[in-house]
Amino acid sequence: MRNISFALTTPQLLAGTKTVTRRIGWQHLQAGEQLRPVAKCIGLKRGEKVQPLRAPLLVVSVRQEQLRALQDDVDYGLAECALEGFGDHATLRWPSEFVRFFCDSHKGCTPETVVTRIEFMFTDGATA
């Protein structure tokens, strides 16, 4: 089973408010696959181990889109921010803030970058 890191959105994942994530790459992921959510999987220091955060996630849908799609259609962007776990969060409420956050945390990313949108569901009974 493939690991998927939630280093930037651990609280949202643990709270069960996040059911969508965006990634650079991941084009070959398919609906029906399971992913193990972990705190981080790259940049582990010597002796550190991968820390699972909860039961595996079931991928519901996968598609590619430009990151700017969240800004171009504000209603879509607001709905997606909520699915990303930022609906009631004090910051990153607006799609433009989410796009800036994503670009700032992914080297070389711009609003025009094509990202993979991954929708998932929890297999441990938690719901958003």
Q: Mind explaining what this structure looks like?
A:
The protein is an alpha+beta fold and 128 residues long. The chain has a single domain, classed as Roll (Archaeosine Trna-guanine Transglycosylase, Chain: A, domain 4), CATH 2.30.130. It has helices at residues 10-15, 69-72, 74-86, 95-105, and strands at residues 2-5, 20-23, 34-38, 57-66, 114-122. It has a five-stranded mixed sheet. The chain starts with a strand and ends in a 6-residue tail after the last strand.
Largest sheet: 5 strands, mixed
> What oligomeric state best describes the polypeptide chains here?
single chain
The appropriate CATH architecture is Roll
> Overall pLDDT, averaged?
90
Q: Please bin the fraction of helical residues.
A: 25-40%
Tally of structural domains? 1
Mass-distribution shape: globular
Question: Which fold name fills CATH's third level, the topology?
Answer: Archaeosine Trna-guanine Transglycosylase, Chain: A, domain 4
N-to-C SSE string, H for helix and E for strand: EHEEEHHHE
Q: How many β-strand stretches?
A: 5
Class by alpha and beta content: alpha+beta
Number of helical segments with 4 or more residues: 4
Task: Offer a few descriptive terms.
single chain; 128 residues; alpha+beta; Archaeosine Trna-guanine Transglycosylase, Chain: A, domain 4; 4 helices
